[in-house]
Design goal:
Blueprint: H1 31-47, E1 51-52, E2 64-65, E3 68-69, E4 73-76, H2 77-98, H3 101-108, H4 111-114, H5 116-131, E5 138-149, E6 164-171, H6 180-194, H7 209-224, E7 230-234, H8 242-255, E8 260-264, H9 266-272, E9 273-275, E10 281-283, E11 286-293, H10 305-315, E12 320-322, H11 325-330, H12 333-339, H13 352-359, E13 365-367, H14 372-383, E14 388-392, E15 401-402, H15 406-412, E16 421-425, E17 432-434, E18 436-437, E19 448-462, E20 467-481, E21 495-497, E22 499-502
Parallel strand pairs: 4-22, 7-8, 7-11, 11-12
Antiparallel strand pairs: 1-2, 3-18, 5-6, 5-19, 9-10, 10-11, 13-16, 14-15, 14-16, 17-19, 19-20, 20-21
Helix pairs in contact: 1-6, 5-10, 7-8, 9-10
């Protein structure tokens, strides 16, 4: 249970010495053994799809292994199980937020005036509201990202490794790691056996993320009821994180060979797609019953108006969208900040137990709107910038501003421009010790201080009046050097990992 000190960043300090979680196996590993197991692990990763295309030397016919942590990082069992149990409630919350038109409109009113990207999404949303939704059912494949908080130690524990976990964000579009999460567990299981620690594998939780996410798409395909229709993946023009997408396609085909999967960019949809007489989505002569967006979450995916027109066309269709435009908007940082305000959760959740469970995971989230609340948040950030993160309405990593960079960023913004951002209390997670293996490294890796971010996957299907399907479906763990702010693996900062549960 969280100590009361955890409720305020005033009790947290970036200068504290972060506690260290007990490692899975004794560290360091003897050099000769380390050289041997790394060599094997690299080959295992490549041969099992723990891989990506290189952004530096891109070649569509070549891949390199994705950065990975050699042995799994420790994570408290109690906190992991609590996160798994909470995910269906978070699914429900997101679903209800997405269908509350008044809440979305009032929450995003200022943001859409200054953030062009969110404004464009919102205009599609308004178009659908004005003309009526052709397909009321949405599919959500969400990922709730969390970190352990360690700067509020429980006075009754000695020493305390963490206080509780706090939500970093919830992703409602292109929630990656459905394949890379499970394959990380398999890779590290192999490594543990090679290091004669196979007994530790029992404490690596099973991870059905790939099958769970794909089953959500298959269930939506069944609900649409068109046996000859395809599932459409919306992808970038160039896909680096190819394994994490293709394995979804392969899994769907293996589960139900009758389901065809096609991949198209937004530009290709503009050129090739149209609505049929009943507003069914046709790509060439192929009807699409489910659309799974792995692109469309950042401005660079819409270089021209054509791509926005393609997004609107799909939104108008009978296909079930993952996410629908209102699910996409529900995942914005501004909505996340608004949900943390006192009393707001009562609007969406129907009992106190659910409300308290969700409230416990919120860290401090503050509006930067041009009002008294926003001015107070700015003053707070300028006084203690190391305690905060400045976040825009973006997904995909690499967009946040941290610590000492915050004051200069805020001073460059006028009060209106600030509305496109939120201020979040920074989470200070405990450290683990381990080795990060990266492609191209010429030297043997050294033991490093690492911090991890756990993602819990959820799948939900429903319309405004009912939820048809709601499950927690797996997890992922992404780990980075403790000195690095951003942690995206695709962005080059983080590494594949999986949790080793400790009591």
């Amino acid at each position: 249970m969280c100590d009361s000190a955890c409720k305020s960043s005033e009790n947290c300090c970036s200068s504290i010495e972060l506690p260290v979680l007990k490692p899975c196996i004794p560290i360091p590993i003897p050099e000769e053994q380390l050289i041997d197991v790394i060599d094997k692990a690299k080959d295992w990763a490549l041969m099992h799809g723990a891989a990506m295309r290189s952004k530096v030397n891109f070649n569509p016919d070549a891949m390199q292994f994705a950065p990975f942590v050699l042995v799994p990082s420790s994570f408290p069992r109690k906190e992991f199980e609590k996160a798994v149990k909470l995910q269906p409630i978070l699914n429900e919350l997101m679903h209800k937020v997405a269908h509350d038109t008044e809440f979305l409109m009032s929450t995003l009113a200022n943001t859409i005036q200054v953030d062009e990207f969110t404004g464009n999404l919102f205009r599609i949303y308004e178009n659908i509201l004005e003309n009526g939704s052709t397909q009321p059912i949405s599919l959500g494949l969400f990922r709730s990202d969390l970190m352990l908080e360690s700067c509020c130690p429980d006075e009754n524990a000695s020493p305390a490794a963490y206080c509780c976990w706090k939500q970093v964000e919830i992703n409602s579009i292109a929630s990656g790691f459905g394949h890379l999460g499970p394959i990380s567990r398999a890779l590290q299981s192999y490594v543990l056996h090679e290091l004669n620690h196979g007994d530790k594998v029992a404490d690596l939780p099973e991870n059905p993320a790939l099958t769970g996410l794909c089953n959500g798409m298959i269930e939506a395909w069944k609900i649409r009821g068109k046996p000859n229709a395809a599932i459409l993946f919306i992808v970038e023009d160039v896909t680096y994180n190819i394994c994490d997408q293709r394995f979804h396609e392969f899994q769907i085909r293996e589960t139900n060979p009758a389901i065809r999967v096609i991949r198209k960019s937004l530009s290709e949809i503009h050129r090739e797609a149209k609505l049929g007489p009943e507003k069914e989505l046709l790509v060439g002569d192929i009807e699409v019953s489910v659309i799974y967006f792995r692109a469309g979450y950042e401005p660079g995916h819409y270089p021209t108006q054509n791509e926005w027109d393609a997004r609107l066309l799909m939104e108008k269709s009978l296909a079930i969208k993952c996410p629908s435009i209102h699910y996409h908007l529900a995942g914005t940082k501004k909505v996340q900040q608004a949900l943390a305000k006192p009393g707001i959760l009562k609007r969406f959740l129907d009992n106190d137990e659910k409300i308290e469970a969700v409230k416990e995971i919120f860290t401090g989230l503050y509006s930067l709107d041009a009002n008294e609340e926003g001015e107070e948040a700015v003053a707070r950030a300028l006084k203690n910038p190391e305690k905060y993160v400045l976040k825009p309405q973006r997904e995909g990593g690499g967009n946040n501003i941290y610590g000492q960079d915050i004051p200069s960023a805020l001073k460059k913004m006028n009060p209106t421009e600030r509305s496109a951002w939120i201020l979040m209390e920074r989470i200070f997670p405990p450290v683990s010790k381990g080795y990060i293996i990266r492609p191209g490294d010429s030297e043997l890796p050294k033991v490093a201080d690492l911090v991890s971010e756990l993602g819990i996957f959820g799948a939900i299907i429903g319309d405004k009046d009912r939820i048809l399907y709601n499950h927690q479906v797996g997890h992922m763990l992404r780990t980075k050097l403790s000195t690095v702010n951003e942690g995206g693996v695709a962005a080059g900062h983080g590494a594949l990992d999986s949790p080793y549960l400790i009591d």
